[in-house]
Write a structure and sequence with these properties.
Layout: E1 2-7, E2 16-21, E3 30-40, H1 42-49, E4 58-59, E5 63-71, E6 83-87, E7 97-101, E8 106-107, H2 114-134, E9 142-146, H3 151-162, E10 166-171, H4 177-182, E11 187-190, H5 196-203, E12 209-214, H6 221-225, E13 228-236, H7 250-254, E14 259-261, H8 272-287, E15 295-300, H9 304-312, E16 319-323
Parallel strand pairs: 9-10, 9-12, 10-11, 12-13, 13-14, 15-16
Antiparallel strand pairs: 1-2, 1-4, 3-5, 3-7, 3-16, 5-6, 6-8
Helix pairs in contact: 2-3, 2-8
The structure holds NADP nicotinamide-adenine-dinucleotide phosphate.
Residues 41-43, 123, 126, 146-147, 149-153, 170-173, 176, 191, 215-216, 219-220, 237-241, 263-265, 311, 314, 316 line the site of NADP nicotinamide-adenine-dinucleotide phosphate (NAP).
């Protein structure tokens, strides 16, 4: 018998209900996992609220870690007893045990705890594709990272700095500056739409940045475009303050032949090969000290609503995990 969070309708955190369920035996290509650690991400909140539609009723959650307790036919990549983690679907990570496709599991090294894996894998793979595929950040690149004190931003800044970039961070309040600095930023700005572009110009000797990483969306999109050098890349990848506005494409021409993309983790991990290769890069980055998994708060699975409320109301200061 397992316990799992299920949603039968979308809405406030209270729509998440803790239910008992029988697990079937794993089918071909599947394993059964006993989970000890579950990562909480803003996408979970969007799906629970209905801002990102999911078929109902549904489980929730896209990131977990635990131990393989049974394997289905044809599974050879993992065996019973292996410690593993995953990021991405199928939905249903908020559970004490679950079935999961074997080819989307990542074997964990002895040096990485289940809790740390659940804090770093989803956000780490996101940072990996944003830096290495989307932005192609290299020595000498200059990047502007919003949410630099957040769970993902801390990893993004640390990795960008390791790659040799000049990293400028943006936070929403003074209390977050020290955390952004500790994550590797060379300079940190408290967001002000009126002054950000000139602060960025000053910090880059008038050149402005090669890449803006903006997950904030509605409140920051216009200011972000003004922080880019000619032919710079605007990466809009979240909606913390609401969806970014519709874009008149002529604006990209007028502001210096800018590039614009709205990337998703799903499109960068669609094949098992690509997903596994990015995950390996994250585990290597942790092993070599480029990334340090940090947990801001752990909640019991039954308290998932409290975790969502923290994330939704901007109270969190890093990664949140759930423990069944
Ligand atoms: N597209 C993808 O592939 C993908 C994948 C993963 C995550 N995401 C997105 O990435 C974002 C961050 O995720 P997360 O897990 O790091 O969430 P998080 O821990 O809640 O971080 C969000 C951060 O945004 C900051 N913030 C809010 N308003 C701001 C503003 N006006 N200017 C600068 N910073 C501001 C907050 O900083 P303060 O501390 O300063 O308030 C907070 O630290 C979310 O929007 C998420 O949906 C996208």
């Amino acid at each position: 018998m397992a316990i799992a969070i299920r949603v039968h309708s979308t809405g406030a955190p209270e729509v998440m209900q803790l239910e008992s369920m029988e697990l079937a035996a794993p089918g071909p290509g599947e394993v059964c996992l006993e989970q000890t650690s579950i990562g909480v991400n803003p996408l979970d909140v969007s799906q629970r609220k209905g801002a990102v539609p999911i078929p109902l009723p549904s489980g929730l959650g896209l990131e977990g870690a635990g131990r393989v307790t049974a394997v289905g036919a044809g599974v050879s990549s993992v065996q019973v007893g292996d410690r593993v983690a995953y990021a991405t679907g199928p939905l249903g990570a908020y559970a004490s045990a679950r079935l999961f496709p074997a080819d989307r599991l990542v074997r964990l090294p002895d040096t990485l705890s289940n809790d740390a894996a659940a804090a770093v894998l989803f956000k780490g793979i996101t940072a990996q594709y944003l830096l290495k595929t989307t932005g192609q950040v290299r020595p000498g690149s200059t990047v502007l990272v919003y949410g630099a004190a957040g769970a993902l931003g801390q990893l993004l800044c640390a990795w960008a700095r390791h790659l040799g970039a000049q990293v400028l961070g943006v936070v929403s309040k003074p209390a977050s500056v020290a955390r952004a600095e500790a994550s590797g930023c060379h300079a940190v700005f408290v967001f002000d739409a009126q002054t950000l572009a000139s602060q960025v110009a000053q910090a880059t000797q008038g050149r402005k940045v090669d890449v803006v990483y903006d997950p904030i969306g509605r409140d920051t999109f216009a200011a972000s475009l003004d922080c880019l050098r000619p032919r710079g890349l605007m990466v809009s990848f979240g909606a913390t303050s609401g969806l970014p506005p519709a874009v008149e494409v002529g604006v990209l021409n007028a502001k210096g032949s800018l590039f614009l993309t709205r990337p998703s983790l799903a499109a960068h991990t669609a094949s098992a090969e690509e997903y596994q290769s990015r995950a390996r890069d994250v585990l290597d980055a942790v092993a070599s000290g480029i990334l340090t998994p940090q947990i801001w708060k752990s909640y019991a699975l039954a308290d998932a609503a409290l975790a969502h409320a923290d994330l939704e109301h901007g109270r969190s200061q890093g990664a949140i995990i759930l423990n069944p």
